[in-house]
UniProtKB/TrEMBL annotation:
The keyword ATP-binding applies. Signal peptide: none annotated. This is ABC-2 type transport system ATP-binding protein. It comes from Arenicella xantha. GO terms for molecular function: ATP binding; ATP hydrolysis activity. Residues 10-235 form the ABC transporter domain. It holds the Pfam family ABC_tran. The keyword Nucleotide-binding applies. InterPro entries: AAA+_ATPase (IPR003593), ABC_transporter-like_ATP-bd (IPR003439), ABC_Transporter_VariousFunc (IPR051782), P-loop_NTPase (IPR027417). PANTHER family: ABC TRANSPORTER ATP-BINDING PROTEIN ALBC-RELATED.
Length: 286
């Protein structure tokens, strides 16, 4: 499924998903293009996993959804040749040895590189002869990520990929993702609650809340449109053309987040900084 460079890999319009009378997704529109690393960020129960499952053709939905121009539920096998997915619950066969599991993936996935997997594995304490059920929870997740990283697909869909991993391994995984992205022009759609850690590798962020997308913005644009004012004394923004979208009063300082505000006017009130993704997430979900 080779596509031309400008074609959207994922195209979603008016996507809704109901569980009984409960709406998990409400008319979601989202397009993911080639070379993008998109972070799908939202509070618990926002609909992130549901959206990824729809993209993977694992659940029924209403609305329009194509991946590589195909409907996932109808062309799942073909679609999986060009994309890889890791769910938030790692499920590897515990009775297998690591080497057998990698051989199994090699036999079943045409784009799996066994030599790449072996190379990645050498940087970990996991040995080829280890039985999977003797590995710690974090090591199992790590093995799963290695298997996924060694599949050379154009699109990676990752649901909470680093859950349960220590900070060193999380950082290593993110660095490898970026290397792959720059080297191979892959696209990545990733959900995570580790907002602050993922921030540096994203090109775009999508906030989702109660089944609806509340913000969809390139990281560069986010840095120019939003700012954070920090002051050690109480701030009074009365009279400013833009009011803060969020204010946090701490014992030692006051922080306020603004959108499309005049930074020069704000500088009279405190230090004007670029908000972190976490700041923005809290501001838009409070
Ligand atoms: N199989 C299901 N049956 C009924 N309701 C479901 C099912 N799966 C998800 N939901 C509901 O749909 C909503 C969205 O769930 P989803 O798992 O997509 O959230 P999420 O953003 O991934 O949350 P988290 O960050 O906690 O993993 C929630 O209200 C959830 O209870």
């Amino acid at each position: 499924m080779q596509q031309d460079a400008n074609q959207a890999l994922i195209k979603i319009a008016g996507l809704s998903k109901y569980y009984g009378s409960k709406a998990a997704l409400k008319s979601v529109d989202l397009t993911v293009g080639r070379g993008e690393i998109v972070g799908l960020i939202g509070p618990n129960g926002a609909g992130k996993s549901t959206l990824l499952k729809a993209i993977m053709g694992l659940i029924k939905y209403s609305g329009s959804l194509t991946v590589f121009g195909q409907e996932p539920m109808k062309n799942r096998t073909k679609m999986l040749e060009s994309m890889s997915y890791i769910a938030d619950v790692a499920s590897l066969p515990g009775w297998m040895k690591v080497s057998d599991m990698l051989s199994f993936v090699a036999d079943t996935h045409p784009k799996f590189s066994r030599s790449r997997a072996d190379e990645l594995l050498r940087d970990t304490p996991i040995r080829q002869q280890d039985r999977i059920d003797t590995l710690s929870k974090g090591m199992k997740t790590r093995l799963h990520l290695i298997a996924i990283l060694a599949i050379e697909t154009e699109l990676l869909v990752l649901d909470e990929p680093t859950l349960g991993l220590d900070v060193l391994v999380r950082r290593d995984f993110q660095d490898r993702l970026v290397q792959d992205y720059y080297n191979r022009q892959r696209s990545i759609l990733v959900t995570t609650h580790q907002v602050d850690e993922i921030e540096s590798i994203l090109t775009r962020v999508v906030f989702i809340k109660e089944g609806s997308i509340t913000l969809d913005i390139q990281m560069d644009e986010l840095k120019t449109r939003y700012c954070k004012v920090v002051s050690e004394s109480p701030m009074n923004f009365a009279g400013l053309p833009n009011q803060a979208i969020y204010q946090r009063n701490l014992p030692s300082k006051v922080e306020a987040i603004f959108m499309d505000a005049d930074r020069e006017l704000l500088s009279a009130h405190g230090d004007v900084l670029t908000p972190s993704l976490e700041d923005l997430f809290v501001a838009t979900n409070s």
